[in-house]
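Shape matters. As here.
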Amino acid sequence: MIPFNKPLLIGTEQEYIAECLTNNKLSGDGAFTKSVNKELEEMTGTAKALLTTSCTHALEMSSLLLDIEPGDEVIMSSFTFVSTANPFSLRGAKIIFVDIRPDTMNLDESKIESAITNKTKAIVPVHYAGVGCAMEVIQALAAPKGIAVIEDAAQCIGASYQGEKLGTIGDMGAFSFHDTKNLQCGEGGAILLNNPKYIERAEIIREKGTNRSKFLRGEIDKYSWVDKGSSYLPSELNAAFLLAQLKEVELVTQTRRALWQKYWDHLKPLADQGRIELPHVPDGCYHNGHIFYIKCSNIDERQDLITYLKSNQVYSVFHYIPLHSARAGKILGEFSGNDVYTTKESERLLRLPMFFELTNDEVEKVCQLIFAFYEGQ
């Protein structure tokens, strides 16, 4: 049986957790959390990284930092997980969905300008599969109008765009360390604060609206409630687990990229025949091998292939159902322009098994089964 995903285990996690238990400090913002923050800052070059309980909460922090409120509008792709939209909907914003590019499944940068109004507060590009959106275009549209750019970089650890790490190009970025991601600690995330003006307030929001971080650094003699906020600090156990994996981010990235390339090379003949489509990585994008997908002709063919692979002990999955077609999406947002590609392309996309321990033989087996399926059509 080849599973779709197997959460990463590097092998040194237990050592870090044992040290955490020896320290007898399990609540957040201890030595391991600080080490993770430092590793992320050095790895990405961001002004400040703060570990959070999830990518969702990192995005919630960004909505609080921007003072999102009812009447505001936030632009994003509809082809994403609900966690991209919820943090802004919780603050009362209206979600404005734009169509995607069929080549990368990222939001179509050419559709953003027509979606901008005087109510637009933020643009949230989602870098699908660790492949960067056209950030120079997005930044050029946002900056003159004072619109914030918040990168949903949930899938992007180790990936970059035009030489800049994804998550560090906009005003803020958000990583995920859920157990489906390249690096994981079960549940976890991080907010990257690329604009220094947000750093002090981010520390306050993350610490339940208090200036406790300043107190712990000895900058004030007591701390108190000074702003709105919540509890976004993960346990030191999560941080210790994650730190072990962050130390090996290059190994993980290179291993996954090699597996991604093996899929691409094996399946290219089938793509050349026009039977399937393979992922496209534009020039200037350095992906991290997070996802390998193919596109079938239509939703029925995709389901037949999922069933065929499962009957042969290979587990594959489709991805997002577009948010604008969901019940909540219809209430909390609207689609700007026409849905030319979002629904059509999402119904064709099929994700293949991809995880650190996947072997070359297993990749070859998956590819052989896909060839066998199409030979029988």
